[in-house]
Amino acid sequence: MQVKIVADNIGKSFNGHCIFKDLSFVVEYQEGLIISGANGSGKSTLIKILCGLLSPTKGRIEYHIDNEKVIKEQRRSFIGLVSPEIQLYDELTALENIQFFSKLMGLYYTTSGAKNLLQEFGLRGRGYDRLHSFSSGMKQRFKYIIGLLKEPPILFLDEPLSNLDKQGQLIVDKVCHRQLEQGILVIATNDDRDLKYGEKHIRLHGGSSRGDT
Amino acid sequence: MVKSISGFTAAAAAVIHKDIVSEFRTRYAFNALIMFSLVTLTVVSIAIGRFNLTADLSAAFLWVMVFFSAVSGLSQSFVKEEETRTIISLQLYAEPLTIFAGKLIFNCILMLFLESIFIPLYFILLPVNCGNLILFLLVIVLGTIGLVGTTTIIAAIVAKSSMKGALFAVLSFPILLPLLVAAIGATETSFSGGSFGAASNDLKLLISYPVIMIVASTFLFEYIWNE
């Protein structure tokens, strides 16, 4: 599936305060885009705009699949997001969370398949534990399971290594390389270790900056 | 854009199942609903003492208690998702209408479950006779569907505001007033032993109101959800 993201002259303001403006870029199939910048420069906001969770104040975002433009309502079928802003259901067990999100996404759920995913992300044996008993690192790993459930052609990662130990970082490394072979990877980060995943780089400076691309 | 009927149904059923399991474990809305209804029922029962209530007063007391219980608990369906920030996952991965359908049916189940506890207590604690039980039960079910159909969309609207509780009550009351007037009228008829024919005008409103509200809500919800 050939995917492409086109951002044309996008800008975002909150209550008249400009976060960024005039950002234009294209991310093609098998490309990675790194978004960096200081705290408050608008990295997470830009990720949310690209995902469709926020509307840009100005400009437009387009997704193209096999050279055909995707309408806004259908974009959610093609994306996965792992972000500190994503919260899952603490009162449900890990398997219940996987089952719930599988059904929401229209996927076929099997317990054995879900257990395999838990094993792949180093959470073997924790399927029947409620998420509130998970450490922050385990929750971060679990967010990857949900974000990758439908093997999305476009994967957004916001601070991908936060809370992860060495083993978790290796798992994320595998995820990023696999994603770069199968689709598009967009990472918002301040961690230099993430820079290797993208040939394209946007630096946001905050305020009314245009950002460097 | 809905994938298919089966996909839509499975996703809405998943939302209902998730909300039931979640509510069973946290009792986030149920505690508020049951406590409010029991406290008001007890206070009214003590205040009335051994006086006999007329059918219109009994009906009004019943719907005042049901209305305020609904206001105290039903907003939680969306407020909880907003407060725990799980709403972002839903916005990202679910078709908006599946969420609305799931929340609407869950709220209906929750209110009918509450009423199955509250209404028998109402007849035990208050000196009320029901002359037409079938009409009464029909009014309760129709009134509850109307109440839930309206409060579910209002809950989605207020979930993102900072004054959720106050705004929910302020918005709910004027919108629900016609429904409450009809529900009180039909309940009064059932208490005094009147026939279905005698309550036909109120029943017409009790049937048409939820249909209008739910159809309008399905058109509005996607805009509310995505903003």
Oligomeric form: heterodimer
First and last CA, distance of chain B: 17 Å
Structural class from helices and strands of chain A? alpha/beta
Q: How many separate helices of chain A?
A: 5
Shape of chain B: globular
Average pLDDT, all residues of chain A = 92
Structure description:
The complex is a heterodimer of chains A (213) and B (227). Chain A is α/β, with parallel strands linked by helices and 213 residues long. Chain A has a single domain (3-204), classed as Rossmann fold, CATH 3.40.50. Chain A has helices spanning 43-51, 94-104, 111-120, 136-147, 166-182; strands spanning 3-14, 17-27, 32-37, 58-65, 68-70, 79-82, 154-158, 184-188, 200-204. In chain A, strands 6-7-8-3-9 form a 5-stranded parallel beta sheet, sandwiched between helices. A 4-stranded antiparallel beta sheet of chain A has the order 2-1-4-5, with helices on one face. The longest helix of chain A is centred in the C-terminal third of the chain and has 17 residues, at 166-182. Chain A starts with a strand and ends in a 9-residue tail after the last strand. With 227 residues, chain B is an all-alpha fold. Chain B has one domain. Helix content of chain B is 82%, strand content 0%. Chain B is built from 9 helices and no strands. Chain B is globular, with a radius of gyration of 18 Å. The two termini of chain B are 17 Å apart. Chains A and B meet through helix 2 of A and helix 1 and helix 5 of B.
List the helices and strands and how they pair.
The complex is a heterodimer of chains A (213) and B (227).
Chain A: E1 3-14, E2 17-27, E3 32-37, H1 43-51, E4 58-65, E5 68-70, E6 79-82, H2 94-104, H3 111-120, H4 136-147, E7 154-158, H5 166-182, E8 184-188, E9 200-204
Parallel strand pairs in A: 3-8, 3-9, 6-7, 7-8
Antiparallel strand pairs in A: 1-2, 1-4, 4-5
Chain B: H1 5-26, H2 30-48, H3 55-73, H4 76-83, H5 87-93, H6 96-125, H7 133-158, H8 164-191, H9 200-226
Helix pairs in contact in B: 1-6, 2-3, 2-6, 3-8, 4-7, 6-7, 7-8, 7-9, 8-9
